[in-house]
Specification:
This is DNA-directed RNA polymerase subunit beta. The protein is mainly alpha-helical. It has one domain (about 15-205). Helices cover about 75% and strands about 0% of the residues. It has eleven helices and no strands. The protein has helices spanning about 15-20, 25-45, 50-55, 60, 65-70, 80-95, 95-110, 115-120, 125-145, 145-170, 175-205. It is globular and about 50 Å long. Residues about 1-10 and about 20-25 have low confidence and may be disordered.
């Protein structure tokens, strides 16, 4: 994201909907890749529970500023790009777990795919369950199957995006502005889902740089 974040970090809907990945100049790209690879390889080689706990909760104490500075401009289909998107999703979920769980549940109701199962949220999915899902996905990057964690995050995005679209359709006549906002949000979820799915595929091919 192009904006500079400050603690306490809040992400209004407009910021999420406008969020775009990109490629930073060469030096920033080099730093993004080196830091993401160093962090992940070190933690996954020895996934100490206390260290993983601190990494999962990092943005709760420090905000997302440092992570955004390091990784937000990396290519969407890269290791730093993947890490950035997972941290971003966790922040967004924890910022408004009530609305997020509502859209996720609506998405589950209208889904005709296995995405709700892949996402792995406890059902019924309320604010506590959706918050726990965000932590589980991020934790999976450090001490589980990295590609599976990305697939779960992508599935979450597709389900939640479907929920946003469904609610947008309900509001199309009575609240057109809100309907448009939710449609834009659904598109962002869909975009991130595609990026994370690509990252999972690259990881399995040992090609995620």
């Amino acid at each position: 994201m192009a904006e500079e974040f400050h603690k306490p970090t809040m992400f209004p809907s407009a910021v999420f909907e406008a969020y775009q990945g990109g490629v930073d100049p060469a030096e920033s790209s080099r730093i993004a890749h080196e830091t993401s690879h160093a962090l992940l390889s070190r933690v996954r080689a020895d996934p100490d529970a206390d260290i993983v706990d601190r990494l999962v909760a990092y943005t709760d104490e420090h905000g997302i500023d440092a992570i955004a500075e390091l990784w937000s401009r990396a290519s969407p289909r890269s290791l730093p790009g993947a890490l950035w998107r997972i941290y971003l999703l966790r922040v967004l979920i924890r910022q408004d777990p009530v609305s997020t769980s509502f859209y996720f549940e609506r998405g589950v109701a209208v889904s005709s795919t296995i995405d709700p199962i892949v996402a792995g949220a406890e059902a019924p999915t309320g604010p506590d369950e959706i918050t726990a899902l965000a932590d589980q996905i991020l934790r999976g990057l450090f001490e589980g199957d990295f590609a599976v964690a990305l697939d779960r995050a992508a599935a979450f995005c597709r389900v939640t995006g479907s929920g946003c679209t469904s609610v947008a359709d309900d509001l199309d006549v009575t609240e057109p502005q809100r309907s448009t906002e939710l449609t834009r949000r659904a598109l962002r979820y869909s975009s991130i889902a595609g990026e994370l799915t690509s990252c999972a595929r690259l990881w399995r091919a040992e090609s995620l740089d």
